[in-house]
Amino acid sequence: MRLYDMELSGNCYKVRLFLGLIGQRAQLQSVNILGGEHRGEAYLRINPRGLLPALEDDGAIVVDSQAILTYLARRYGAESWLPLEPLSQARVASWLSFAAHEVHQGPNMARLHKKFGMPIDVAKVTAASLATLALLDAHLAQHHWLAEGDAPTIADIAVYPYVALAGEGAIDLSPYKHLHAWFARVRALPGYIGMPGL
Ligand SMILES: N[C@@H](CCC(=O)N[C@@H](CS)C(=O)NCC(=O)O)C(=O)O
């Protein structure tokens, strides 16, 4: 397996983290986003969307971090990471969508602004971040894991990175005690690996 990767990308990290949790390894191929390599001809042949991460496995390419988690879980992971039971599977899908939308529009954008200088509407992104964190904290007050079962799923892995990194976007995480307890549960999983900032 080869992962087209960038060390400081939370979307790439969620794939590296999940590989660690399921005991799989990928060769990491670093793509220089800041230098524009992801918009070059060679990388666009891998991912025409021009985004990281992308995963190559057995001659096939999977793009988008949520899609890659889905692929890895189904192909290499225990069934509990992506349950087959219809309602559980739908709950996981719903949180994957939450990672790509609410978490992206909130904590991820706040971090992109603070750490990489991306222009954003600070008031809008801050409000979106606080709403996202409050929703998660309330959910985690009632549930150990996001998809509501008694085991972690790829939903937790998709949502964790940019929420845990929210401080790098100047979003204060201290009021959210249930989030901190969930961070600790994620970090205690066998095979957990971190990234700079986590
Ligand atoms: N929904 C995509 C988002 C991917 C994404 O935004 N990747 C960032 C790195 S974290 C990227 O490639 N940015 C380059 C750009 O926007 O030009 C996923 O989850 O993989």
Automatic annotation (TrEMBL):
User: GST C-terminal domain location, by residue?
Assistant: 85-198
Q: Which residues form a coiled coil?
A: none
What's the superkingdom here? Bacteria
Check the record and name the Gene3D superfamilies matching this protein. Answer: 1.20.1050.10, Glutaredoxin
Which InterPro entries does the annotation name? Glutathione-S-Trfase_C-like, Glutathione-S-Trfase_C_sf, Glutathione_S-Trfase, Glutathione_S-Trfase_N, GST_C, Thioredoxin-like_sf
The GST N-terminal domain covers which part of the protein? 1-80
The name under which this protein is listed is: Glutathione S-transferase
